[in-house]
Write a structure and sequence with these properties.
The chain is an alpha/beta fold and 295 residues long. It has two domains: 19-184, Rossmann fold (3-Layer(aba) Sandwich), CATH 3.40.50; 200-286, no CATH class. The chain has helices spanning 21-31, 64-78, 88-105, 152-164, 200-212, 222-226, 230-244; strands spanning 19-20, 36-39, 57-60, 82-86, 109-115, 143-144, 170-176, 183-184, 216-220, 252-255, 282-286. The chain has a six-stranded parallel beta sheet with strand order 3-2-4-5-7-6. A three-stranded parallel beta sheet has the order 10-9-11. It has a two-stranded antiparallel ribbon with strand order 1-8. It is elongated and about 70 Å long. It starts with 18 loop residues before the first strand and ends in a 9-residue tail after the last strand.
Amino acid sequence: MSQANALPQTTTSHPTSSTSVREAVLDLLREFKIDTIFGNPGSTELPLFLDFPQDFRYILGLQESVVVGMADGYAQATRNAAFVNLHSAAGVGHAMGNIFTAHKNRTPMVITAGQQARSILPFDPFLFSGQATELPKPYVKWSIEPARAEDVPLAIARAYYIAMQQPRGPVLVSIPADDWEKPCEPVQARVVSTETRPEPRVLDAIGNTLDAAERPAFVVGAAVDRDEAWDEVVALAERAQRRRLGGAHVGALWLSRRPSPVCRLPAGHARKNCEPAGRPRCHLCAGRRGVHLPR
């Protein structure tokens, strides 16, 4: 699968002089090819939107769970991490249902949550997040509240890399309101691998099992679509079918019957290939949590 649209470019150069945290983060998002921010902001998030650049767009949701739901679908459609901005503890709490869904969907998502200004954190300020990094767990892959304002761009960069690495999922960065105007050094995006590959010996075992199967069946999950592997799965099923055309059994390809773009038979593929031929003796379950070959 190609992730060229999601990877940052290595040719971008940055000035050596310092910039603001806000500008450094926006520059990073440009390198990550993110130009859309989903959010429902409060007072602690507003500094991010001062002099909001025209090459970005802001998608406002009236409730945080809706915001995360929109971002989930957008990330799946663009095959790149979505960027979400929520309001402190209350906003993250409202969004938790769909953060859980994004976690189960394995959707890459960088969630930023506002925090009260560092100067008043020791005084238990109104609407601050007392344990910001713990609040969304265990449904985020990683969470952080940087110790210094200067570390916010690096935290955003690491959050993106982690969100995009397999298995993908949401991450959270808590950012105090007064960090956005602080000076910092620019951070250049790096190219980080977003793909994993199975061991050759495991592939050999799967191939040998399928070759020996009398009635192979393929149960295909959403991860096959996320990895853009539809053509390969269909070719594998058709190969299994051709091996059995001379006998009484035909390989079967089963997919979810839900009308979902990630659980749909590819256009042009014969529906007859999806009809089971007797009770299968070998199931290939692909696209959920690895490959499973029950006997």
